[in-house]
Amino acid sequence: MSAAAIWLAVLGCALGCYLLKLAGLSVPGHVLEKPAVRRIADLIPVALLAALIATQVLAGSRDQPALVLDARLVGLGAALVALLLRAPFIVVVFVAALAAALVRAV
Amino acid sequence: MTAEPLEPGRRREIVRDGLAVSVATGAYGISFGAISVASGLDVWQTCALSLLVFTGASQFALVGVIGAGGTAFFAAASGLLLGVRNTLYGLRLAPLLGWTGLRRAAAAHLVIDESTAMSVTRESGAAARTGFLTTGVGVFVLWNAFTLVGAVAGEALGDPRDYGLDAAVGGAFLALLWPRLDSTQHRVTAVLAAALALVLVPLTPAGVPVIAAGVVALGMGLVSREVHP
Predict the structure, then answer these.
(1) What predicted TM-score, i.e. pTM, was given to this entire model?
(2) Of residues A61, A100, A49, A101, the one with CA closest to residue B58
């Protein structure tokens, strides 16, 4: 992606995210307080994060857009173990990187 | 809720809690900075994300989609969808903070997971405002400082794959998802969303599978009767 396109994504996302935050502080509560709206808003991060994990770890390159099993999956497994051991965020990320780097080094 | 000022001991306690959360959260700005430059953004773009978007999951999503070769539109849209939860946080915060005009416009930028968590449970409006400001400003300062450190260090490293930074992105998303897998409904949603995304990966441009997963959230939210706090 060109630098200009990345800037467009960065600034568009910044403006939109700010307006989403401001809307919450400004809109009368009852407008968005419907149970279904709350459930969906609650589930969106869960669905998106799960999809992001799946695509980050298993999707191939942009030239070869199939599913690929490689060192990234080992990294994810290491992250899972770290989470089960109640490691803090930064340790989880570090362990994932370290495991993948080790697999690639051997 | 009272208009009375906070008792100094209580105030110190809330400030201390807020700063502790700020340090813990700010520190993982390092991983965001490093992952962002590894995904193809430069140091300026990376720092602009932390300064202007300032909501971690959205920033990780945006650079994740760019790193996967997605378009600017899908990158921004992924970030925006993850930012929707901040609107709900704002709804809960508005009556506690009780701010209007410029003060509300400035406070809006600080509405994130951590500042909300450190204020909505407080006993009074004054305590909520102290928790919100301490945590919001503390995370903002440290998150941005550590993003810069991570971006500069990441740029100096060379090929990010040698250091497993591409795998770190998956680890970061898993760590963000982990505390949300606290109900059957959430776990089922996560599995269905991941499965749908994987089916779509070979068929659609990068970025589309992630946005499409939002449909799973929509469907589950509409059919379910489960009320989640």
Answers:
(1) 0.84
(2) A49
